[in-house]
Amino acid sequence: MKDKEKIALFIDADNAPASKIDVILSELARYGVVNIRKAYGNWKSHCLKQWEDVLHEYAIQPIQQFDLTKGKNATDIALVIDVMDTLYTKDIDTVCLVSSDCDFTPLVTRVLADGKFVIGFGERKAPAAFVNSCSKFLFLDDAVSDDKPKQVHSPSIKSDTKLMNLLRQAISAVEDDDGWARLGPVGTHIANHASFDQRNYGFKKLSELFASIDLFEMRKTNGSVFWVKDKKNAKSKQQHNSQI
């Protein structure tokens, strides 16, 4: 039996909601065991009272950082140093960073260069560069934590050009001669190229996201295998073939 992945969790408590700790740990349980759990902040501040209430319950080690200089965040620096120390001194497979305001992109890039998987959590105000640099990133908003995520209206999704390009490129990479692509390989292709997760758009499954967008066509074979086609690309192929 394969050993479970070893995960190190680092929380920027100044910029993360304590109310979502269950969501964070439940998600990480899908990947492995969280062996290291640390939360950083000025624990003398009343702003971290909610985090104080969950530290012992979830075996999270608080790391104290005083606000020594106004406008400078010592918490971020301490977190970065500990992540790097952990890379060199501990046997871990995955690093998890929880923050909404701080841009840890250089840190993520360095951890990825060491061959580690990086999972990020934060609210939607998290810097885009930080979100996109992670291997996987989940927003800690209501759409992620609810048992039945609130689905985003498809027209608003269609206006997300970056998302549409990502989905179309993934289909194009694994489609057959008729333009159909198995949903499994499509999801794998996306995961290898972006920190995408359909739950960030309000859908539990990738199939539900594709089905909500009329730019794509879906079918099911053998009762459980989903296939997806890019209507626009398929139409272009048909026109091209008819001219040959």
Highlighted features:
single chain; 244 residues; alpha/beta; Nucleotidyltransferase, domain 5; six-stranded parallel beta sheet; three-stranded antiparallel beta sheet; 11 helices; OST-HTH/LOTUS_dom; NYN; RNA nuclease activity; LOTUS-like
Structural features, described:
It is a single chain. The chain is α/β, with parallel strands linked by helices and 244 residues long. The protein folds into two domains: 5-145, 5'-nuclease (Rossmann fold); 154-243, 2-Layer Sandwich (Nucleotidyltransferase, domain 5). Helix content is 41%, strand content 21%. It has eleven helices and nine strands. The strands form two sheets. A six-stranded parallel β-sheet has the order 3-2-1-4-5-6, with helices on both faces. Strands 7-9-8 form a three-stranded antiparallel β-sheet. Helix 8 crosses helix 9 (183-193). The longest helix has 16 residues, at 74-89. The N and C termini lie far apart (54 Å). The mean pLDDT is 86. Residues 159-232 form the HTH OST-type domain. InterPro entries: LOTUS-like (IPR041966), NYN (IPR021139), OST-HTH/LOTUS_dom (IPR025605). One of its GO terms (molecular function) is RNA nuclease activity. Pfam families: NYN, OST-HTH.
